[in-house]
Amino acid sequence: LNAALPYAFISPALAMILVFTLIPLALVFWYSVHNWDLRKPWEQGQFVGLQHFLAILDPERDELFYPSLLKSFIWVFGSVSVQFICGLGLALMLNQTFFGRAIYRSIVLCPWAVSGVLTGLIWVWLFHETAGAINDLLDRAGLLHLSVWLGLSEVPRRVAWLAYPETAMPAIIVANVWRGTAFFAISLLAGLQTISEDVYEAGAIDGAGQWQQFRYVTLPLLRDVIVVTTLLRSIWTFNFVDLIYTMTGGGPANSTLTLAVYTMEKTTVGLNYGYASALAVILFLILLGGSVFYFKITGFARGGAGE
Amino acid sequence: MKKFAFLVLSVVLTLALARPAAAAVEITYWDTNVTPVRTPFWQHMIERFEKENADIKVKLVGIPQAQAHTKIVTAIQTNTTPDCASFWVEWLAEFKAMDAAVDLKPYLEKSHLKNELVPAAIEAVEYPVGGKDGPLLLIPHRFFLDGIWYRLDWYKEKGLEPPRTLVELEEQMKLFTDPAQNRYGLAMRGGKSGHLYLFQMMLTYAGANQLFDVDGNSVVNRPDYVKGLDWYTSLYRKGLTPKSAINDAYQQILMNFDSGTTALLIHNPGSSTEHKNKLGEGKFMSAPWPLGPKGVRVMRNIWTEGVGIFKTSKQKEAAWKWAEFVAGEWASSYWNRMIGEIPANLKSQQHDWFKNHQYLPNFSKPIGDPKTLWFDLPTYLPEWAEFQDRSIIPDMQAVMLGQKTAKEVLDKWTGLLTEWNQAYLKRTGKK
Hints:
The complex is a heterodimer of chains A (307) and B (431). Chain A is an all-alpha fold and 307 residues long. Helices cover 69% and strands 0% of the residues of chain A. In chain A, helix 3 (65-94) packs antiparallel against helix 10 (210-239), helix 5 crosses helix 8 and helix 10 (210-239) runs antiparallel to helix 13. Chain A starts with a helix and ends in a 9-residue tail after the last helix. In chain B, helix 10 crosses helix 17. The model of chain B has no long low-confidence stretch (mean pLDDT 90).
């Protein structure tokens, strides 16, 4: 058999990866060490070495990088942890047999089918101070005192959830949880269905209760699914801008400006492709390092169990 | 045979019918603020234009305001620009830097429009790209100034006159504020473009229009400016505006005013149609920008929009015809009558509808008034566009929230503006 044949077969795929992933990636690296500010054509294309990186890492020169990195971690941890817990709960419930299960399963998937921008718009209105359903519900339930308890005002009143630096981040996390829970629910449900009934039966014979079955049977057997889904979701969330952009635009007072939003703004508003590329490279390295570290501590794929 | 004859006939017919269409040039025009209100007006203008110029077809493509800038910049970078688009003055410095737009001065020289356009509007177009010696990158067809909208019915009920001074403005805001009823004084703009009102308020409060000294160093941290910024943001801290004002941009401030949440709105005449549709005639009225404690109002130079042509266009002559038409007497009059703004064409300003308009004269009153001082934001600085969105707005929000002081942020702006302005002066050989 011709040894080159397999390569010929995968060459279309390789070409696609080259054109759509590797070359753009290389370009980002190239931009990151050059001046490429569309508003300053006189310095465009100059090689600057690591200057963009030094400027980014110097809090005197870039006052937004470290705060936005912190915001990114809060955003990712807040979103993914709550999504995971809710998603796991839903998956366990949907794994039971009950009437109309198929319909419930499709309903659960719905938010995942909604685009980020649309989710953002829906939640902007839900959180709205005067027209929002959330304030309306609080009002009807006599819970407007919430604004006093949260220290947002002296008298009970409707809350502009996206207007306070204290509540804007939790608010966008809630919106993201609403959308992302479905992903966990469906993925974990698929994982649950691969666990054979025999294992539970064996556990029951050994005298394992509900909790012990969950702790010693379900969780260990779901581990690979959990590792992959939380990692994927973390990466997506880290890079996710459309929801934040529609809901707050990074505001108020930069309180929801994550690193990804900051990078995007450097490109679209700042038109500074060089600097933005350096930010993107840093983002890439953080995600790469984070993923490797995560695989290490979870011991994933050690036995060659592929992705 | 019959079949064949029919075939020949239909081919001949098709060719005959297709010929005039094939001879016409098609130009693509981007409306960079597409709304359901604006589109029919454009379509009507295009219809008339195509009747007058049978050899030109205009293809209208609408781009929402929020994405317009990104779309155009991307198009410039990828050489996919249309023939022409409606340009805004704040983009011109960038377009010049990227060498993307055609200088329309030579075209205007030869045109009947030459002496028809409002000189102040032409100056506003030249300002960001080098002043008198700079290129003319758009042909203005409308312009506006900021002013005040107020609820006429509420004011009548309380027997009040619209605010003539900033002191009156604040007093009246207090009178109308009642959080229990969900009513507030002013629909303040803390979100996108809110810095435009901030600068005008801050400078009006101080009664001065200087942003740089003779050496080109920024003076925005002058003590009277600090007081001005502090006063303006205190309106939010005192609870005289909706709490959401901190993020509110164009749509939200309009909604606050038009839904009866606020008594006052700072905006331009362009929103009159929205007020008419949502509140109804007779419930709202306009007033000129109020005077500050020093007895003057300090306003940003007029804002203008008009058709500009991209260098990539292969039909520049046809695109120019369109730009000329849009800024011409009929179109400028029609557009501004429909949308409720000020025509940039002097002949259109002589039309009865404009002279007898109930809202517009209040907005144009500051022009020619000795009590008005004018200023321009340094939009010629390449750093400005990002600075206004990423620094000024968040800093303003931080001051509104009391996280930062007015002095702190103005000190920071002064340092940056001085640095950039000095670099600019050096680069352009002005120093």
